[in-house]
Amino acid sequence: EEEDGKDDWEDSDSGDEWDADSDASGPKLDALEQRLKQTSIDDSDDDEDLIEKEKRLERERLAKLGKERAERERIEAEKLAELRAMEEEENKQLLLLAQKREEGKKRRLEQEKANLEARTRDDLRCPIVVIMGHVDTGKTKLLDKIRKTNVQEGEAGGITQQIGATYFEKKTLLAQTEKLNETEKFNLTLPGMLVIDTPGHESFTNLRSRGSSLCDVAILVVDLMHGLEQQTIESLTMLRKRGTPFVVALNKIDRCYDWKTCKDTPIRDALKVQAEGTVQEFRSRADSAKLQLQEQGVNSNIYWEMGDEDWTNSDFVPLVPTSAITGEGVQDILLLLCQIAQRKLWRQLMWCANLQATVLEVKAIDGLGMTVDVLVVNGYLREGDKAVFCTLDGPVVAEIRGLLTPPPSREMRVKSEYIHHKEIKGALGVKLIGNGLEKVMAGTPVMVVGEYDEEEDIKQEVMSDLSRLQDKLSTDKKGVMVQASTLGALEALLQFLREETKPPIPVSAIGIGTIHKRDVTKISIMNEKGCPEYATILAFDVPVERDAREQANEVNVRIFTADIIYHLFDQFTRFMEQLTEKRREDAAGIAVFPSIVKILPQHVFNQKDPIIVGVEVVEGILKIGTPLCVPALGGLNVGVVTSIECNGREQETAKKGSSVAIKIVNETNPTITYGRQFDASHSLYSQLSRASIDALKLHFKDKLENEDWRLVVKLKKVFNII
Description:
This protein is an alpha+beta fold. The chain contains 20 helices and 29 strands. The protein has an eight-stranded antiparallel sheet with strand order 12-11-17-8-9-16-13-14, covered by helices on one side. The protein has a seven-stranded mixed sheet with strand order 2-3-1-4-5-7-6, sandwiched between helices. The chain has a six-stranded antiparallel beta barrel with strand order 22-23-28-25-24-29. Helix 6 runs parallel beside helix 7.
């Protein structure tokens, strides 16, 4: 029963089996171990896989980069090769072009040489005559008399503003000189005569230079009543520098006392009917002109009193008395020019097939568009020719669509019916019609691309003169806008504003022709740049569109218009003076003139506010409105000068050395008293500040002398102004 009474757990079989068999490897345990092993192998495999993957990816990335780089290098190499090939091709083309240009130039020069050798004395061209002289000597009137027209009245103020060219046919010359030729018996072989009337005023020097560089022979008009004037001397210098032969027209002979008019007669016939006193006056005035010419180094004589020796001496100048109003002596001058041309100048007048043409003017004409006035000296111009012109933007090639000339003995400036031509032979003034001629510059050559010419060679040749002209048209960053009807006038106006005005007027923009809204907008930027005085358009001989005027009023732009250059200058100068005056008034409250005054103790009239004392101005300029102080007393503010009197008369200023009575008012400290806070032992100084000195420099620079500026420097130290 005891055995039965044992607990189940005490049974031998029920011992700790797990303990007894703890070292045995049971299947469960094996399975567990196996699983654990597998897990660790899997983990290490995973680690290895990740590293491998990263390595693989890196290899792939590098391989891809390598391929991309190789592709880039290949493309770059291809591009480089392509560029080199293009460069080589370009160089080859340039070389070919230069070669062709050189060949073209060589052919052109050979052709020109052959043309020069082919000239003959039997085929003369028209001599080009230029009329020069001082303003108002009667140049255009003289030309009008020969032409029997009236350009002068069509010109502003009777002053020539543009170069005009007039062609006289041979029959006109024969008809005009008929009476004189009865005695002279001169055989006229010239085909005609081309006369350029150059503007007379100083500002047209460049136009006059251009006129005289084109001419073969000149007429220098001298006013018999006034003798040689500034411009006459200038013209004389120009002619002699260029070696141009000339005759002197002693004009206005009809102004001699008691002159009897003999309309359009030779001058010797006219002198025969004059009273002895009139002839004597003419003689004395002519002698005086001869003397003045001699002072300029020119030997001259009345032309019919010149001996054969004088004629052969090229330095001797013939004098021809004329009257542009009544026409005496006009025949003489014409015949004399023809004689000089045929006897002395025939070598340079032999007509040559080489085209020699110069642009005189560029002008927009209603119905024709932009036209170019060209003076053809030698050679031919034909309709349909490919002409090359010079502009600031490079050469312009245009087909000549039309060749127009005014009727003979009419000027290119005068509006009359034009005659159309298929071909023009020099020397002649002609108006060209073509496309893209807006920017063609006056004074530049015109060339034609011939059958065997290289266009590039002609372009290069045409542009060679531009560098000289470009300097004239350079513009400033700040300045007014200048607009003119023609380039010649624009050049003249620019020169006038830059060289002949004191101080020069800066120009920031230029234009030709009508003033449009866009021009106003362009110059209005000067207001934003802080230069409102330059928001101005100086318009010379050009119309202004209505909407441009309205726009100008809105954006505060002034448009000054005139058809005489000096009027334009006067208007602008007047405006600048008013502006300066207004600015001075505005700055008067800030600007303080430097002064040191000494109180005269025997002339103290009122010690309390307003203090009235007699003072002597020791240095500088004392003005009404000057604040005075005593630096010796820590800059004690004495007050402001409200009036200055000298001998009972009120005055605005008192200069160094003068003794005056002054009234001083002190609004900030009315209790200030002479004799208490300050007395005659203290000098009174103008109270300067940095702002007042700046205002002085800006608006009153010309009102102060050098010693006043020295005083400003001295006072700067007194008041510690930096």
